[in-house]
Amino acid sequence: MARIFISVGGNIDPHHALPPALDDLQRQFGPLQLSRVFESEAVGFTGDNFLNFVVACDSNGSVADTVARLKAIELAHGRPLNARKFSSRSVDLDLLLYDDLCCQQPVVLPRPEIHYNAFVLWPLSELAPTMKLPGSGASLSQLWQKFDKTTQKLWPVSLHWPCAGEQQ
C-alpha cells in the first residue's frame, strides 16, 4: 500500500464539480484526508478562478494504475480527453507523490509543480509538514516557508463535501 498525495482543482463550476469527484476518489482509494481549500487566479491563461487543494490517501495499485484511475475520474466529471495544459476544467487530478518514489515514467514524481505553484505546495505542506520531499531533503513545511509568496495570490475558502462536512 502506497501513501499518495493528489492535487485537486477546477475552475468550471468547482463548488458543484469537485464534491462528486471526491466521492469517486473515496470509492477508488478509501478514506481521504483533505487540506484546506484555496481559491486562486488561473495560472498560464486567462480564465475563472480555480479552487485547489490536496488529498492524501492510500493506493494499492502501481503508479500507472493510480494515474489511470485518476484520469478516469477526470473524464467521468467532464474533463475532455484532449484537454490542453493551460485551460479551464471542471476537475483536474494530478498525482504529486507516491510514497517516496522518484521517477520519470509514467509521470514525473515528485511533480515539479510542488516547487513553483503555491496552490500545490501550501496545501501539501499542511497535510504533511514534516515529510521530506523525495530527492530534495527538505521538509514540505521548509519548502513552503522559503516559497516566494508574492508570486501567486491564493486565499482559503469553503467547499461543502457531505462526506466530510465543510472543508476550511
Q: What's the number of helices?
A: 5
Look at the structure and give the mean pLDDT. Answer: 92
Helix amount, in percent? 25-40%
Please, what is the oligomeric state? single chain
CATH architecture: 2-Layer Sandwich
Question: Which spans of ≥5 residues are poorly predicted at pLDDT below 50?
Answer: none
Question: How far is it from the N-terminal to the C-terminal residue, by CA?
Answer: 28 Å
Largest sheet: 6 strands, antiparallel
CATH top level label: Alpha Beta
Write down the secondary-structure element order: EHEEEHEHHHEEE
Q: Which radius of gyration do the C-alpha atoms yield?
A: 15 Å
Global shape: globular
Number of strands: 8
Report the structural category.
alpha+beta
EC number: 2.7.6.3
Keywords: ATP-binding, Folate biosynthesis, Kinase, Nucleotide-binding, Transferase
InterPro entries: Hppk, Hppk_sf
Domain 7,8-dihydro-6-hydroxymethylpterin-pyrophosphokinase: 5-129
Write the layout of secondary structure elements.
Blueprint: E1 2-10, H1 14-29, E2 33-34, E3 37-40, E4 50-59, H2 63-76, E5 92-98, H3 113-116, H4 118-127, H5 140-146, E6 154-157, E7 159-161, E8 165-167
Short synopsis of the structure:
This protein has 168 residues and is an alpha+beta fold. The chain has helices spanning 14-29, 63-76, 113-116, 118-127, 140-146, and strands at residues 2-10, 33-34, 37-40, 50-59, 92-98, 154-157, 159-161, 165-167.
